[in-house]
Design a protein that fits this description.
Layout (H helix, E strand, L loop, with lengths): L2 E15 H8 L2 H9 L17 H6 L3 E11 L5 H25 L4 E3 L36 H9 L15 E9 L11 E7 L6
The chain binds iron/sulfur cluster (SF4).
């Protein structure tokens, strides 16, 4: 089947001492306030409220390895295709981070955004346990991290948003790993183009 190229993906990486990141980008109270206004608050196991203190988590680690994944739409790409690509890249990044977590003793994945692993929706509103605890991870923002400032400070590329249904210049995923030592086993491709069979999406 004929392939059509839809968007370009670029990855950047940075390793930051946790002490520096806490000073520059973490404000637990401020981001908890934002979370309380979100529909996911108390409704996803990946999102607050938590039964642990966030600062206790940060203090367990020495280093934060960050990855910035930027999707740039190519001419002819629709917003629907770009958003489908974003979800695909999020899944791909999550798998890669989970692999790195296995290779780095004591590491913790920070996922890019809230958990969307269950197509049927999260089990939390029903008072049921998480269905996939082996894959579910918390995001930077759920732990009080400022993702916008992270993207600007460490990758020199501000986040942009979809406004009024218009195609954005690019979309960004920011994830990472909390580590007790320097990272091992990083193998991110720096840049590639993503293709899917034409006709898979309408429009
Ligand atoms: S894996 Fe499923 S049940 Fe667990 S947090 Fe994610 S969506 Fe909710």
């Amino acid at each position: 089947m004929v392939k059509s190229v839809l968007y370009k993906v670029q990855h950047q990486q940075a390793q930051v001492p946790v002490a520096e990141y806490l000073q520059e980008c973490v404000d637990v109270d401020k981001f908890l306030g934002y979370c309380q206004q979100c529909e996911n608050y108390n409704r996803r196991w990946s999102c607050p409220t938590f039964d642990f203190a966030l600062m206790d988590i940060w203090r367990r680690f020495k280093s934060l390895w960050l990855v910035n994944c930027v999707l740039t739409p190519l001419p002819g790409t629709t917003l629907e295709q770009l958003l489908a690509g974003l979800q695909q890249e999020k899944n791909r990044l999550h798998d890669a981070l989970l692999n790195l977590e296995k290779q780095n003793t004591g590491a913790w994945v920070l996922s890019a955004g809230s958990c969307r692993l269950c197509e049927e929706g999260c089990s939390r509103p029903q008072g049921q346990p998480c269905r996939k605890p082996e894959r579910m991870r918390y995001s930077l923002e759920a732990l009080g991290g400022d993702v916008g400032k992270t993207a600007e400070l460490y990758f020199k590329q501000p986040l942009v948003w979809i406004e009024k249904g218009e195609m954005p210049a690019y979309l960004t995923l920011v994830g990472g790993l909390l580590l007790t030592e320097e990272i091992k086993g990083v193998c991110f491709d720096e840049e590639r183009e993503f293709s899917i069979p034409t006709g898979l999406f309408a429009g």
